[in-house]
Amino acid sequence: MTHYEKAFKELYEAIQESSDQALRLRAMTLREAVLDSAEAEKNKPVEELISAGEFNSMSYKDRAKLKNEKPDVYKKAIAGKFKEAI
User: Fold this and answer.
1) CA atoms within 13 A on the CB side of 68
2) Which end of the chain is more exposed for a tag (fewer CB within 10 A), N or C?
């Protein structure tokens, strides 16, 4: 279970205990959206990621270039999502 799934499972369970129907419906909708996002994230191709070694050895200039050219890859690297070193 990813951290997304775990966090939203806890949130969903807490909100299910609420008596507010609108809040419960919104929580269910958000939960499904997050679970779909987490599943999509797991299924993204590895080519969209870089290795930790590659990122750590980049100069600030190269990191800025990566940020401008491939913002998604840069954001994932900053978030600590790296492909496995082979």
Assistant:
1) 6
2) C
72 class by beta-carbon count within 10 Å (0-12 exposed, 13-18 middle, 19+ buried): exposed
Do residues 4 and 10 touch, judged by C-beta distance below 8 A? no
Instruction: State pTM to two decimals.
Output: 0.40
pLDDT values of the chain reduced to their tens digit, one per residue, 86 residues: 666 667 767 777 777 777 777 777 777 777 777 777 766 666 665 556 777 778 788 888 988 988 898 888 888 888 877 765 44
74: Cβ contacts below 8 Å, ≥ 6 apart:
63, 66, 67
Phi, psi of 51 (to 5 degrees): -80, 160
